[in-house]
Write a structure and sequence with these properties.
Blueprint (H helix, E strand, L loop, with lengths): L9 H20 L9 H16 L11 H7 L9 H15 L1 H6 L2 H15 L8 H8 L6 H13 L1
C-alpha cells in the first residue's frame, strides 16, 4: 500500500530535486529552443502564394505610388483582407482542436486553412490539388497528410 507523499519531507525534496535536474537536462538537449511553429506563422506566405495561383495576370500594384494605393484602397498586407482574416480565424479554431493540433504539422494546418477558406469563398485554384499543395507549400507538405487534414477539418 502506497502512503501519500508528505510535504515537507526528505523524500519530497529528493524527488523534487531529481525532477528539476531532469528538466534541466532536457532543456539543454533541446538547446532551450521551446518555440513551436504555429499555423499562423505560415499563413501570410501561403495565402499570398495561393491568391496568385487563383488569379490570372492582374494589375501590378507594387509599381503604384503610396498615394495611388491609398486613394484606391489597395490592401498592403494579404492578411488584412477578408480572406486573410477568415484564414486566421480558421487557424485559431484548428489550434483549439486536439486532433488537428497534435496530429498534423503547423505547415499542413496553415495550408488546409487557406484551402478550405478559399473553397468556401469560391476561389478555386487553377492547378489540381496535388500540384497546388506542392506549389503553395513549397513541397514541404505531404499530400496524404493534407488530404487527411481536410477530412478532419470538415468534421470539426
Amino acid at each position: 500500500m502506497n502512503l501519500p507523499l508528505q510535504v515537507p519531507s526528505a523524500l519530497y525534496d529528493t524527488l523534487r530535486q531529481t525532477l528539476v535536474q531532469a528538466e534541466l537536462i532536457l532543456l539543454r538537449i533541446l538547446g532551450f529552443e521551446l518555440r513551436l511553429p504555429l499555423p499562423l506563422d505560415y499563413l501570410p506566405r501561403y495565402l499570398e502564394r495561393a491568391m496568385k495561383s487563383v488569379s490570372e495576370e492582374g494589375e501590378d500594384y507594387d509599381s503604384w505610388s503610396n498615394d495611388e494605393k491609398e486613394e484606391y484602397g489597395v490592401v498592403r498586407a494579404v492578411m488584412d483582407t477578408g480572406v486573410g482574416k477568415a484564414c486566421r480565424a480558421k487557424a485559431v479554431e484548428a489550434c483549439k482542436d486536439y486532433r488537428l493540433a497534435t496530429l498534423f504539422p503547423a505547415r499542413a494546418i496553415a495550408l488546409g486553412c487557406v484551402y478550405v477558406v478559399m473553397n468556401i469563398r469560391g476561389l478555386q485554384p487553377l492547378d489540381d490539388r496535388k500540384q497546388w499543395v506542392d506549389d503553395i507549400g513549397s513541397r514541404k507538405v505531404d499530400i496524404e497528410d493534407f488530404e487527411e487534414l481536410l477530412e478532419v477539418m470538415r468534421a470539426v
